[in-house]
Amino acid sequence: MSFWEYLGNRHQQLLADALQHASAVLQCMVVATLIGVLIGVLTYRSEWAGNLATLTTSGILTIPSLAMIGLLIPIVGLGVAPTVIALTLYGLLPIVRNCVVGLRGVDPALVDAARGIGMSRLAQLLRVELPLAWPPILTGIRVATQMLMGIAAIAAYASGPGLGNVIFRGLASLGSANALNQVLAGTLGIIILALLFDAAYVVLGRLTIPRGIRV
User: Fold this and answer.
1) What is the phi-psi region of residue 120: left when phi exceeds 0, alpha when psi lies from -120 to 50, beta otherwise?
2) Per-residue pLDDT tens for 69-125?
3) In this model, does residue 36 exceed pLDDT 50?
4) What is the DSSP string of 96-153?
5) Whole-prediction pTM value?
6) What is the largest CA-CA distance in the chain?
7) Which of 109, 172, 177, 188 is deepest in the core (most CB within 10 A)?
């Protein structure tokens, strides 16, 4: 069976796996973004705290994905739970680092001006600092998403959702008729999803970043 015949026969299952893959990555990115920005906001004013946050999240990223999921299985079991936890942890580093860098890069004169017109500390953060730091934060989110697209395939090891199941089935049956088709279909599916997500972030950036800041 050719690759195109395989796609024609299995397109519904592949589409379902792709939707599960995209959904898992999207939900984990939302959680990682919220946690990462919160960590960045809490640590960027202190040199040691910001460095500690970056060092800790970078240390998490050095843990092999199979080892991370394997360590989580005895704690939370198989399925979605270890996938969500692992992907969320892996997505933190680019967001935390870019949030800290972006907030530290805000012109102090603008913050002083906001304080001078009577803005509270929270208002300064929400209306001045975070909007100006949004471009690097969005870049961190884009980088994290691309990483998680590939890492999410390993979730099949823990019976997690997504295109990794297609790839693992192919690898487990190498030598059979459709083994290479399965591996190729799963890999191409992940690449296509990554490109679609990145295009969506480009559109989001154009909608949320003022032209003057973007330039």
Assistant:
1) beta
2) 888 888 888 878 888 999 999 999 999 999 999 999 988 888 888 888 888 888 888
3) yes
4) HHHHHHHHHTS-HHHHHHHHHTT--HHHHIIIIIHHHHHHHHHHHHHHHHHHHHHHGG
5) 0.89
6) 72
7) 188
